[in-house]
Design brief:
Elements (H helix, E strand, L loop, with lengths): L1 H22 L5 H14 L7 H14 L4 H14 L3 H26 L4 H91 L4 H22 L3 H4 L14 H13 L3 E7 L8 H21 L4 E8 L3 E8 L16 H12 L3 E6 L5 E8 L20 H11 L2 H4 L2 H34 L16 H6 L6 H7 L12 E3 L6 E4 L2 E9 L5 E10 L11
Parallel strand pairs: 1-2
Antiparallel strand pairs: 2-3, 3-5, 4-5, 6-8, 7-8, 8-9
Helix pairs in contact: 1-2, 1-4, 1-14, 2-3, 3-4, 3-5, 4-6, 4-14, 5-6, 6-7, 6-11, 6-12, 6-14, 9-10, 10-11
Length: 547
């Protein structure tokens, strides 16, 4: 990756060097190329030493505009990795000033020429090589940090939700264990009581069987003690007390009617629809599941939709028991409608129902109401229902949950997205670098095109030059000047073969006077004298003057 990036900026830098050299010419091309090679050599160090590398490249850009693409890529990377805004702004400002300062200082020797054109060249290179890439890197870095923060917050919220659900499931299982402790403990107590009575009866009727009855009583007592040791500690978490205590009648039709009547007395408009026989012959865990679903759903109605109409439907057949509690949209908002519950009650219901092999669903209705629906097998098997995919009931290692959510939650879904996103980002950055380089070339071309072209002035005529050398300097004979000098010029020097009277040597110093330059040559066409003299000038009368 580093080699590809370095090769890319080197190619773009060579493109800028070639374009500027071909269109406008580059003074000292060997030096400029050597500076570009040095800049490309520094480019791989931009991640380890971003500040130092950027400042050095900014100075090299002032010496050689071909380093501009390399500096632009470095400014982008440095701004993207710099978190502190003030430090990033100072870095880009210093780099831009370095570009302008070095370009201004080097302009008379390595640049377009005079100092003002060096300043113009620096002002072209600073935005394209430092400022614009730095702003792009700043935006990209802030976007990346924001996305990472949002992703971390989302992961944390997901983990918190999963831990809350796990806690609710564990709480419900604890409640079920407590109920099993009460139910089984009650039955074992009865067995122990009857075994004790049988032991007393057999002591007189059949003494040989008394030991067997005593063994049954002791075994029952030991089982009761072991059950208390294993499950008794969980009892206070889930054991019901008060008016909601669970009994053998829990979950029957009379029990459900009692729940409905209690809610109706509390001001809820609730109606019960029961289809099928009573549940008194069904297992205790089925009846208690039905009781829990109805009670939890009505409790939620009391909290969030006190003015809504509620329908409790129980359908019982030979295979399953279906319970549906549906409420409509309340005509007026409840006083606690704005408060959102934890959802643990519904999670506990789901856990209880699915442990029996049933299904559970709770969702808002399009009409604005809410519906809780549970289907429980009439005769559930002994095996617990399988856990839903992606759920874990063991929350003893939150770090493992975090790793699972961060890896398994995203790696499968983003394994194909991240490479595509990186390729798109790389292409975008490459296109942006090329576009900046084109703007850089155009700006450099504008500066070079407007610089003054320093042409060597022709040599001044001097004694000893040939006629052709004097004529090459722009000294040519003019008939009008020759006519003005005829008869008024001073004597020609000895050895003169001919004289030239150029027009650019004639100057009117005052009205009526004309200064003439005379260049006299010998027979070998060598300049032997340069004379200047003044003769009277003659002007034609203007049309409105009268003689």
């Amino acid at each position: 990756m580093v080699v590809a990036e370095t090769a890319g900026v080197a190619v773009v830098g060579l493109g800028v060097y070639g374009a500027v050299g071909y269109l406008w010419g580059v003074p000292y091309p060997e030096f400029v190329l050597a500076v570009l090679v040095a800049a490309v050599g520094l480019f791989p160090l931009r991640r380890r030493y971003p500040t130092a590398v950027l400042l050095v490249l900014a100075a090299l850009t002032g010496l050689s505009p071909a380093v501009g693409p390399v500096t632009a890529a470095t400014a982008y990377a440095a701004a993207r990795r710099t978190v502190r805004a003030r430090r990033r702004a100072r870095l880009l400002a210093v780099a831009g000033v370095l570009v302008v300062g070095v370009a201004t200082a080097a302009a008379p020797w390595l640049g377009p020429g005079p100092v003002p054109y060096g300043v113009a060249l620096g002002l072209v290179l600073a935005p394209t090589a430092v400022v614009v890439p730095g702003l792009a890197g700043t935006a990209q870095g802030q976007q990346g940090r924001l996305l990472r923060a949002l992703r971390e917050r989302g992961d944390a919220a997901e983990r918190a939700c999963r831990l809350a659900d796990s806690e609710a499931r564990i709480h419900e299982r604890t409640r079920i264990a407590a109920e099993m402790h009460d139910l089984v403990g009650h039955r074992l107590s009865l067995i122990s009581l009857h075994a004790g009575g049988l032991e007393l009866a057999l002591d007189r009727a059949a003494p040989e069987l008394r030991d067997e009855a005593a063994l049954v009583r002791r075994t029952t007592r030991d089982a009761m003690r072991e059950l208390r040791q294993a499950l008794g500690v969980l009892g206070p978490l889930g054991r019901d007390t008060g008016p909601d205590v669970l009994t053998d009648a829990t979950g029957t039709r009379a029990d459900v009617e009692s729940l409905v009547a209690t809610s109706r007395d509390g001001g809820i408009d609730v109606r019960l629809q029961w289809t099928g026989p009573d549940l008194d012959t069904r297992p205790v865990r089925v009846r208690r599941a039905v009781h829990r679903v109805v009670r939890e759903a009505l409790t939620n109605v009391h909290r969030y939709a006190t003015a809504a109409h509620v329908t409790v439907t129980v359908v019982h057949d030979d295979e399953q028991v279906r319970v549906v509690v549906r409420n409509g949209a309340p005509p007026r908002p409840s006083t606690v409608a704005g408060e959102r519950g934890t959802g643990r009650g519904l999670t506990g219901l789901r856990e209880r129902v699915e442990l029996l092999g049933g299904t559970f669903a709770a969702a808002a209705l399009p009409s604005g109401g809410f519906q809780v629906a549970a289907t429980v097998p009439a005769e559930p098997g002994d095996a617990p229902a399988p856990e839903r995919p992606g759920e874990r009931t063991d929350v003893s290692d939150p770090a493992a949950d975090a790793d699972a959510s961060s890896d398994g939650g995203r790696s499968a879904g983003t394994a194909h997205v991240v490479p595509a996103r990186r390729d798109t980002e790389a292409l975008t950055l490459a296109f942006g670098l090329v576009a900046l380089s084109v703007l850089m070339v155009l700006g450099i071309g504008f500066v070079y095109a407007t610089r003054p072209h320093q042409l060597a002035p022709p040599p001044m005529p001097r004694i000893g030059m040939t006629y052709h050398e004097v004529a090459g300097a722009g000294v040519l004979d003019n008939a009008a000047v020759r006519a003005a000098a005829t008869g008024r010029e001073p004597p020609r020097p000895a050895g003169t073969a001919g004289c030239v009277y150029p027009f650019n040597g004639a100057t009117e110093i005052h009205p009526g006077g004309l200064t003439i330059a005379r260049y006299c040559f010998d027979a070998a066409q060598r300049l032997i004298a340069i004379d200047r003299f003044t003769v009277p000038s003659v002007r034609d009368a203007t049309p409105w003057e009268t003689p």
